[in-house]
Amino acid sequence: MAADRTGRRKAWAPATQLVHEGTRRSQFGETSEAIFLNSGYVYDSAEEAEARFKGEAEGYVYSRYANPTVSMFEDRMCALEGAEAARGMASGMAAVAASLLCHLKAGDHVVSARALFGSCRYIVEDLLPRFGITSTLVDGRDLAAWDAAVQPNTRAFFFETPTNPVLELVDIEAVARIAKKAGAMTVVDNVFATPLGQRPIPLGADIVVYSATKHIDGQGRCLGGVVLGPDEFINETLHTYLKHTGPSLSPFNAWVLLKGLETLPLRVERHCSSAARIADFLAVRAEVERVFYPGRADHPQHDLAKKQMANGGPMVAFEVKSGKDAAFAALNALDLFKISNNLGDAKSLATHPSTTTHQRLTDEARAELGIFDNTIRLSIGLEEPSDLEADLDQALTAAHGR
Question: Cα(192)–Cα(171) distance, rounded to whole angstroms?
Fold first, then answer.
């Protein structure tokens, strides 16, 4: 909720919030948000400096702790997400790591979905155990598995939905209910759905994390991340971690992300409508074995998608017939789609997950997640959909020698 010039609170729609919310103008009255590219701050007196460091007076202390431009980005994300507080981070992975490490300790236990981005799975499987934090990986679709994995020392549930890359879904509301019963916090990576496509906090999640590098920036320009959640968790537990370990968001990157948020509704609408069209296009191709898209009725969790997502999302995955050679041939024949492991860009991107984003997993682990040598992941951009269809048509045709 933002205040108008009379001081009254106004309920703005998300598209309006993403243009206006959180803006803090300097004495110069600039229209666009100002970039405060400073590391430190000055005080009118030694007494004021002491009060700020003690938290007894408002104001900034050091940009590793907080910065006006970063604060604007955090406030705007809170308004969109319906969160009490947020902290910007240097990258999406910094956000994921911080959301877990800031409150877990040796002897704690984490239950996580097994279907995770490769670096997220590294944190859960490899990094946390170095600090004496154990974990159990479960099939995120299986509610009974979440319940059965709970231990007396379970402190966090962690998952992404839709999953990377084959777009499985986790029932946020149901899993959050299990976590609350166990006294654990639910941390949701909401990158693939985007903040406009899915709202985990109203569904019961405690913490939401984003790689703002993706759709929030939306044009492949900079790195950034954000963690959102309850005031006490963000402004005490996470803030202390941030101050002393330093994964801070650059003020310039925060400004770029603010500009990205202004156009997020327009871009996400185009991403998702085009993705739905591309999924339908691929589904009838003779060269394609399977298509994964939550917005299609043939997705095994389509009913859950309708329940917790506003649309089918901006990502599409599919399996090409004839294995890895055909998948590589199709990727190499693409012209408009660019081969990249990134996503959420204005440009449509294609990647081969088993040799890039998930290459560190064993063959068995990838097979368990439904990632095979013929799997291709698409991030649908802002181009004319008919041009994307034409590019996929010629690439699939070339890959199968027709």
Answer: 15
> 303 to each of 171, 311, 312, how far by Cα in Å?
11, 12, 11
Ranges of H-type helices in 183-246: 231-232, 239-245
Q: How far apart are CA 245 and CA 63, in angstroms?
A: 13
Where do the H-state alpha helices sit in 123-208?
A: 128-130, 143-149, 172-182
Provide the token pair at 48. 């004021």
Contacts of residue 55, Cβ cutoff 8 Å, sequence gap at least 6: none
Can you give the pLDDT of all 402 residues of the chain as single tens digits? 555 544 555 689 999 999 999 999 999 899 999 999 999 999 999 999 999 999 999 999 999 999 999 999 999 999 999 999 999 999 999 999 999 999 999 999 999 999 999 999 999 999 999 999 999 999 999 999 999 999 999 999 999 999 999 999 999 999 999 999 999 999 999 999 999 999 999 999 999 999 999 999 999 999 999 999 999 999 999 999 999 999 999 999 999 999 999 999 999 999 999 999 999 999 999 999 999 999 999 999 999 999 999 999 999 999 999 999 999 999 999 999 999 999 999 999 999 999 999 999 999 999 999 999 999 999 999 999 999 999 999 999 999 876
Residue 91, token pair as written in the block: 């990258």
